[in-house]
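Q: My labmate handed me this sequence with no annotations at all. I'd like to see what the chain might look like in three dimensions before we decide whether it's worth expressing. Could you predict it?
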Amino acid sequence: MLQIHQLSQNLYSSSRLLIQLIQLSLKELNLTYPQFLVLFVLWEEDGLKVNEIGKRLYLDSGTLTPLLKKLEAMNYVKRQRGEADERTVHVELTYPGKSLQSKVKDVLDSLNDKFVETSELHLPELNHSLSNLLAGIETLKKSN
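A: Here is what I predict for the chain of 144 residues:
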């Protein structure tokens, strides 16, 4: 029977190694993994508020703000304070930020192909299982 600590260790180790592989692939585009995650969220749905991005990535605004400032300096996103509430900040992709998506896709597709070739895992099923695990962990966290 798999114990929670074994699951935790396997998830932690797998996550770290996968992030390192992705980071190596993103290096040629001068993107860090956290920057990629923010852009990925915006590629899925542009024009989000900072707190909405934070909820999707489980990051607080103190962590997100430096990432967004850097992405803005790279001209991939623009930030705008809300007119009704200046505490609200909307983030939108710029044209270069939108254009970067296809470059990132090409780089990660290559990594994906290598991963599939060398692994017996079926990524859609694994992703579905991990999504279910995440939902379960969220439920546990809310109940504590």
